[in-house]
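Workshop exercise sheet. Pairs work together: one partner reads the sequence aloud, the other fills in the structure field after running the prediction. Swap roles for the next sheet.
Pair: D.N. / O.F.
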Amino acid sequence: MDQSFIHEEIKSRLKTGNACYHSVQNLLSSSLLPQKIKIKIYRIIILPALYGCETWSLTLREERGLKVFETRVLRRIFELKGDEVTGEWRKLHNDDLNDLYCSPNIVWVIKSRRTRWTGHMELMGENRDVFWVLVGKPEGKRSLVRHRHGWEDNIKMDFEEVGRVADCIDLVQNRDRWRVVVNAVM
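Structure field:
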């Protein structure tokens, strides 16, 4: 899959997420709704913009953009906070937002979906077109510019982050062990 296509797809999905966010921002900032409802609105209306994220190979810039998007939405949900010492109102810091949200951030959601889908692909096997679209190597010469990490490279990095460098095929065959790995990525 062409990396520039993936970059454009991610930008398009962020635009869609922003449009959804702007359509419900009055609900998210309403003091009449409890925060649990606001979080459900975020998960049900805004996060579906991630549909198909299992195939994305993210760069650090794209991860940062996704985190910025999520932080903006969470700031709207959790509002301002009064400082106990000075009594002044201030925006919540990112650490405060992460503590209040109590769910994995958007990048971890993408990584867990990618990891879970890896198991499905490994079980499909090499006779399916989906497998070759993601892991196949194009023929021809490579350009001299530095290439982005591919989908397989991202999967390997996801496994390394949780301390598992084992072969995916062996893990997928044992469903219980595979679920443990997928939950560890979460």
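Discussion prompt: Residues 63 and 107 are 6 Å apart (CA to CA). What would you look at next?
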